[in-house]
Amino acid sequence: MYCAKCDKTIPDERLQEIGVKLAEQFGNDSLSKGVCPVCGTRLMNPKRKAK
Question: Is residue 36 scored above 90 in pLDDT?
Answer without folding.
Answer: yes
